[in-house]
Structure prediction request, 482 residues.
Amino acid sequence: MHRRGDDNALRHLDFHCIDLLVMQLGCMLFFWSTQHGGLIYLDPDYRMLSITLLVGQFSLGLFSDCNHGILTRDAYDEFFSLLLYTFELFLVCGLFLLLARVRVRLSDLLVALLFFFDLSFFSRQLNKHLHRLYDRERRKVVVVTSSDQVRRALRRINSSKSNVDHEVIAVCVTDDCSLSRFDDLDFPVYRTDDPDVTEKVTRMWIDDAFFLATERTGYLSTMMEDFMAMGITVHYSLSVLNDFASASTDVQSLGDYKVITNSAHFISYRAEFAKRALDICGGLVGVLGTAVLFLFVAPAIYIKSPGPIFFKQKRVGMNGKLFDMYKFRSMYMDAEKRKAELMAKNKVQDGMMFKMDDDPRIIGSEKKGKDGKPKGIGNFIRNTSIDEFPQFFNVLKGDMSLVGTRPPTVDEWNKYALHHRARMAVKPGITGMWQISGRSEITDFEEVVQLDRKYLENWSVMLDIRILLRTVMVVLRGEGAS
Prediction:
C-alpha cells in the first residue's frame, strides 16, 4: 500500500496545527502586554480579532500552499516565507476587520501578528529539528533505467528538495554494459538480463521500484508485474516527459484509458472556484465604479470627440475564443484607420502589440503641457487606467478575469508563433504580470510572453491577490501606463 503524496496541506498538518496554537498564544501575549493584563477572549472586540486570525489561517491553508517544502527550507528561506505568510494574513484579516467595523485598530492587528511571527519562526525551526531527529525511516528505492540515464536519475532524485522520503539502495540497468563503470556508487548495480535480478533486488527489502523508460529500455512489463505481485509500489516515468521542465504532469482518465497529462499548470476545482468568486466580487465593485466614472467621463469624451462613449473591439480570449472587449473610448473615431499609417513608430518589436509615444490618435493629444507631453482628456483617461473600467463587465460575463494575460487583437493573434499562444491558455485579465512590471517600458514582446508564462506556471489565488494589490499601487503612482 502506498500513501498519496499530493496533499501538502495534510502532509504538513502538524505545522498547520502548531501555527494555529502559536497564533492564539501570540494574541493572548499581545492582549496581556498592551491592554494591562486580562484574557483576550473576555473582550468582545479583541475576541473577534483572535477569531478572525483563526479563520484567516484556515483560509490561507486551504487556498495557498504556504507550507510546501517546509522541511527543506533553511532559516533564511523560512524567515522570508513566514514574513510573506504574515503579510498575507494582515491583508486578509485587516480588510475583514475594516468591513465588519470591528473596534480594533490595524496597529493592534499588526502587533499581534508580530508576536505570532516571532513565536512561529522559532516553533517551526524546533519542529523541523524534531522531524530530523525522530522522522520515520525513508522508503528504500531501486532504480531501473538505461546505463546512460543512471547518474542523471540519481542526481535528480537526490538533489530534489521534495525528496525527503526516499533513499536509492540499488540500480538495475537495462542494456548490455560493463558494470565496473558504476564501482564508485555506494550500492549494488545489476543488469536486468540477469535471470536472478528480481530475487537479488527484493532480498534487500525494497519499498519502491522506479522505472525510468527511454528508447533503450523497452517496457519491462514482466519485471514490473513481479514487483507489484510482491506488494512493491511501482513508479513509472518516461524520460522524454522530464525534459519538459516547464510542464506539470498528472495521471488522468480519457474515456477508459489511463493517460499521462502534461500542462503548464494544474489547478483544482476548489482553486478555480476561488478565482471565479474573486472575479465576481471584484467585478461587482468594478461595475459600480464604472457607473460612477461614467457620470464624469462620458461628457468629457463626448464634448471633445462626439461619438460612442464606449469602445468595443474583438479580442482573442482563452484558447483562441473571440469576445467583445469594452473600454471607455480614449481615441478619436478614426483611430483604427490611422493605425496602419503609424506602424513605423511602433515601439514593440515585430508588431506583436502597438505602443508609441505621443500617439496622435488619443483624444486631446494635441494639447501639450509645459513639459511638452500631451495633456488631453484621452491621455488622462489612459494614464490613470480609467479606460479599463468597463472591462469589469467582461469579468462578470466570464470572458475575462481580474488577473490574467493581455487579450490580443485578432491581427496580433494571427502573427503569433506557436509558443506565443501559450499565454492564452488562461482567461485574459484586466491586469497581470506585464501591467505591474512597467508595461510601457517593455518593448520586447518575448519579454511579455515570458512574464505571462511565469504567471501561468506559478498561478495561485494568493498570487492574484498580490498582483491586484500591486496594480493599485502602480495605478496610484501613475507607473507603466501610456
User: Anything to note?
Assistant: The CA atoms of residues 266 and 401 lie 17 Å apart. The two ends are 59 Å apart (CA to CA).
